Amino acid sequence: MNANFQLSQLSSSLAPEDEFVPRLEACARDIRRISIAAIYRATSGHPGGSLSCADLLAALYGSELKLNANDPLASDRNRFVLSKGHAAPALYAAWARFGFMKPHEVLTLRKLGSRAQGHPHVGDLPLAETSTGSLGQGFSAAIGMALGVRHQRKTARIYTILGDGELQEGEVWEGAMCAAHHKLSNLCAIVDYNKLQSDDRNAAIMGLEPLAQKWRAFGWNTLEISGHDIASIIAAFGEARAVENRPAVIIAHTIKGKGVAYMEDQPLWHGSVKLTREQAETALVSLGTPATQIKELLDVRG
Amino acid sequence: MSAVEKMASPQLIGSSGDSLREAFGKALSEFANDYPNVVVLDADIAGGTGVHHFRKSHPDRFFQFGIAEQNMMAAAGGMAATGLIPIVTTFAVFCLRAVEQARLSIAYSKRNVKIVASHPGLDVGPDGGSAQALEDIAAFRAIPGMTVISPADAEEMRQATRAILDFDGPVYMRTGRSGSTKLFGPDHRFEIGKGQTLRNGKDVTLVACGVEVARALDAAQLLSREGISARVINMPTIKPIDTQLLATASRETGCIVTAEDHNIFGGLGGAVAETIVQTEPCPIEFVAVRDVFGQSGEPQELAEHYRLTAPHIADAARRAIARKKARRS
Fold first, then answer.
1. Which run of H or E residues covers position A296?
2. What span, in angstroms and rounded, lies between the C-alpha atoms of A136 and A220?
3. Which residues from chain B sit within 8 angstroms of residue A129, using beta carbons?
4. Average pLDDT rounded to a whole number, residues A173-198
5. What are the backbone angles phi and psi of residue A192, rounded to the nearest 5°?
6. B278: which DSSP letter?
């Protein structure tokens, strides 16, 4: 974890001697708080799917990826692709939390001239690894990266988070076949399985079940966990690393809108939505944000 | 060889020696040692695209993606992100299937990927309308930052192959299925973004790419018999188009005919018209497929049926000259 994090006091109540898992839980809280603030300031964005993957992002950037804070783009780095690009606020918030982006830049989300575009663009933000926002493509690009680093005999690992609705794209299953065929054990996909998509529940739009069986049938090392349990997420990353000759998929059961009571499990908050002042404040209170920080997040100019 | 063995070895159709796809495949295989980061991506069609040569010469750098072009196209962007130079190969019509992957994961992501498409246009022949991509130049030309190339003969294809490997940026390049007419010797110089005047003339300029270059040269011959002096320009790079060469031709000959094995909208003709109206406006006639799909038939039959052959180019030249004269009278 990087000590440069400025905007908060956010989780400064945690002392360095605190346990690793609670520290990452605090990071996930910060990711959620910054995401809400950025979407409020942008007057548009996707809160539900940003909140559902916050713990996954905290575990990735806080534990698994092990990026060099001084050289995050080192050629032998592990790479992470947010294939569900509409959760960009959470990605930028995670970068802010771990020192790869200035917090105030995250709060320029979706503004003209900002690098924090509505969906991640690698041309502006190299750590995005590839531009995403069209579902399925980040997953395929991650497969290409896994093939590419292995071809060059590098040991780096590639991670990508997909949305559950994203799995309705045929390209995902083209990629699922491809990664298994090429035995890409350096690839770990994570499904943010919050059961909701833009218009309704997955089950109502286009059912995904039996999801784990589908991935197993495609030849993947398939793990199922709670996507809000940091210890389980970290353990699953370890299990994924341990299996040779097969790519891994972690089906992370999550709650859309997690942490904000009025958003949880409500398809309406997929977005893109405009948050009112009251909604933003209520969300931040729901996330345990102290009053002074709420003001800083929602009002202070960088 | 037993009778059964004979029956089990069908003669594969199409890999004629001087087709542009074969020229590409051989050149790529030959040059590959100079470019250790070049890798080839295939969607189960290497025998058709010419990269079977590369598969044989550099099997460790050949990646099979199966019949799944969308994943292949986006994965190419990911491979390029790790420092490789991926060459994505399939038929032009299946490149159309993955245009959006080329847009987001290659062009928008600023990846150094080369998309090399065989079987473009009516030149596909008997496979019919479903296989004849008449929209690919328009589609790929509309993607910001995408260079679009359509060489005219085997020598130019060989040089263009070297040029795209040296070029840093995304490229869409057409090859061709059928046997091509030999136009150029080793003294030919292909350069991305440059056209060449193959024949001087003062009454009209014929601008062509791909298989239409040979037909444009034939048309110039036909026109010369009636005393019409036609300039012929080979325009292998459709984007970025050679604006200067076209403006000069417009100024000096006063009218233009474009010829391409592509739909009339958005291809070479569109590119030429877009630049000419902004530089040296003149009457332009288009020889292209007139907004219809193709059908089965031999390439030459189809070219005649859809009015892409030399007599049709000559007719268009006469129309262009008449319009020029009407403007000036």
1. helix A291-299
2. 17
3. 81
4. 98
5. -80, 90
6. T
Instruction: State how far the Cα of B309 lies from the Cα of A124, in Å rounded to an integer.
Output: 48
Helix H segments across A43-81? Answer: 47-52, 54-59
Q: What is the pLDDT of residues A23-58, one digit of tens each?
A: 999 999 999 999 999 999 999 999 999 999 999 999
CA distance A236 to A225: 8
Q: Which residues of B touch A174 (CB under 8 A)?
A: 66, 68, 70-71
Burial class of residue B276 (count of CB atoms within 10 Å of its CB; 0-12, 13-18, 19+): buried
Give the whole-angstrom CA distance, residue B219 versus residue B316.
Answer: 10
Distance from CA of B287 to the nearest CA of A (A): 37
Give catalytic residue positions of B.
Answer: 69
A136 contact partners, CB below 8 Å, separation of at least 6? A83, A166, A169, A170, A171, A172, A175, B70, B74
Q: Which two tokens stand for residue B164?
A: 């795209």
First-to-last C-alpha distance (Å) of chain A: 22
Which residue stretches of chain B have pLDDT < 50? 13-16
The rounded distance, in Å, linking the Cα atoms of A135 and A173 is 12
Residue A267 is given by DSSP the state: G
Question: How far does B164 lie from chain A, in Å, by closest CA?
Answer: 20
Task: Say which residues have a Cβ less than 8 Å from residue B171's Cβ, sequence separation at least 6.
Answer: B113, B114, B115, B146, B147, B148, B149, B164
Q: Does A21 touch chain B (CB under 8 A)?
A: no
Report helix, strand or coil for A223: strand
Residues 179-238 in B contacting A (C-alpha not used; CB under 8 Å): none
Tell me the per-residue pLDDT of A51-110, one tens digit each, with 9 for 90 and over.
999 999 999 999 999 999 899 999 999 999 999 999 999 999 999 999 999 999 999 999
Other beta carbons within 10 angstroms of residue B251's beta carbon come to 11
Tell me the sheet residues that pair with A189. Answer: A160, A249
Please answer whether residues A47 and A32 qualify as being in contact, where contact means their C-beta atoms are separated by less than 8 angstroms.
no
User: Which amino acid, one-letter code, is at A224?
Assistant: E
Contacts 24+ apart (CB under 8 A), A224-228: A224/A250, A224/A251, A224/A253, A225/A250, A225/A251, A225/A252, A225/A253, A226/A252, A226/A253, A226/A254, A227/A52, A227/A53, A227/A55, A227/A56, A227/A190, A227/A192, A227/A193, A227/A252, A227/A253, A227/A254, A228/A55, A228/A254, A228/A255, A228/A258
For residues A71-107, b (16+ Cβ closer than 10 Å) or e, as one string?
A: ebeeeebbbbbbbbbbbbbbbbbbbbbbbbbbbebbb
Q: A134, B78: Cβ pair inside 8 Å?
A: no
Q: What residues of chain B, 286 to 325, have a C-beta less than 8 Å from chain A? A: none
Query: Which tokens is A1 given?
Result: 């974890």
B76 CB neighbours in chain A (<8 A) are 144
